[in-house]
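Researcher: Good morning. I'm working through a list of sequences from a screen, and I'd like to move beyond sequence-only analysis. For each chain I'm collecting a predicted structure so we can compare shapes side by side. This is the next one on the list. No need for commentary yet; just the structure.
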Amino acid sequence: MKATLYHGAFVRLAVTVISIAMALYHIGAIAFGTPEAIYFRGMHLLFAIVLVFLLYRMTVKKHAGPVSDEQRYVDNRLPSLLDYALLLIGAAPIVYLFVNYEYIVTRIYYIDDLSLMDKTMAVIMTAIVLEATRRVIGWALPITAMVFLFYGLFIARLEPERLLDQLFMTTEGIFGIPLSVSAAYVLIFVLFGSFMERTGTGQLFMDFAMSLTGHTAGGPGKVSVVSSSLFGTISGSAVANVMVDGPISIPLMKRSGFPPHFAAGVEATASTGGQIMPPIMGAAAFVMAEFLAVSYGQVVIWAIIPAILYYVACFAAVHFEAKRRGLVGLPRAELPRLRMVIRERGHLFIPVLTILFVMYSGYSAPLAALAGTLVCFPVAALRKSTRGYVNLPNLLDAFRDGARNALGVACACACAGIVIGVVTLSGLGIVFTQFVVGLAKETLLLALVLTMIAGIVLGMGMPTTPAYIIMTALLVPAIIKLGVIPPAAHMFAFYFAVLSAITPPVALAVYAAAGLAKADLWKSGWAAVKIGAAGFIVPFMIVYEPALMMIGDWPSIIMAFCTASFGILLFAAGLHGYFITAANYWQRALMIVGGLLLIDPGFVTDVIGAGIAAVVSVSQLLSARIAREAVRP
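Model: Good morning. Structure tokens for this chain:
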């Protein structure tokens, strides 16, 4: 028992020290200049691999009979000798690159033959990246990478030596752009999120949302939408958002009268949208900025209207469902007052405002995130209500949380680099583009539908970032070739990579929310799709009307936003059977059609949609008036 305690203490100390070292290394790179690509990306991956093999076991052992707590702890929490061996083996190829740096950068790729040691280290690096990714995020992405490797070796007939060269000895494979984004952007923003959480910002967001919307019809559902959108800006993970907000918002929704599956659907849908919610979006947004060679601030501007439309859809779905069911909000006496929330915790918004100020002053996004991170604990110390968070153990936990939360993205980006390496070397991207263009036969809508399906399927078992990266390699060039402007094409792929988190049968955010709500998975999944249904239409509208990405003149942008917003409200009303009053079947059908016409850009469709909305509104007002007169004595 004593040996186990010493082992546990050693692992915890090692994880803390390595996490702090990882954070300080990246902070130093931001403050004093990023090292050369191989060094910077290699160190990032080295930190990630060491922490993965310290924190994640190969399998979770299940014991047939009774077993002591000590044995269970050793089996499932503490690293085994195999884990330590894999840690050392995984570190060796990266150390090899550092030691032989001059040789690596001066040789001619694809021309100079690889030595036996080069080949050995390349094979080890590839295998370790696959295993580390499997431990952190599951089998989906490693299997995808292995399928691409099989394609490259046995279908495209790539030379094994050339493939190993691409994957390990260049910055076009494992150490490619995805890993660069993880190192340069994701780590510091994830660290910022963990610092915000550890200084009580999660409670601020929940109280802020409760004070604003808790008293309205379906108030707890609206609280979930508002708080999840706020928390999503500092998290970037749909499942993490669910696990933070869900334990509070889901019981409140059930208590107010929402069925468990609907409560789970609301929380899953609202939490998923956090990845597309400016000012701090999910990791894939940074990858998009890198691919399009634009600033992160530009991506934020493109994403503002699509994100607002997504949350308008969620908010409207909750409101109309609550009105249809006759649900009311929570009593005001049970809700925090907005003035008190701002007075007690409002100062915790300062780190987010700091990021915005620094970013829009012309500095880089990583530097802005660093500034926001550095002010988190000093800001928490400003008020007595949050001063309790400012202590050394909490600071160390923030570093540990930040490093651990970054592992999934780091490993996923390295693994996605394997896919990108095969696609680039084999020319599969060009082949796939030709296939999609040929299948669509110059029909953009069909190409978009194929891209949507691919995004949802890819995202079913893997995080948004690798799903988006693979779509960018295979599908985005096809829709660009059909005339879509690159920002809209990338936003379309990004949007559906995000929405895969709520699309059955594999919907990770829904799984988490349904577990908290004790609800049926399938019912929860379809409820989430229904709540976010209008969100599935928005990406198509982005493609056909770039004004929804703030591309174009201001009158066009304002008009497109207003008609799309009202269209989404009408569409949600039709789906949930309530507008001014409860709707019958023909009114619901008309509202769905009218909503789609208003969302669709174009003067004629807007006029027809507005006409349909007017017809439904008049009929509902007349119905409500007749109902009132019928009950009048």
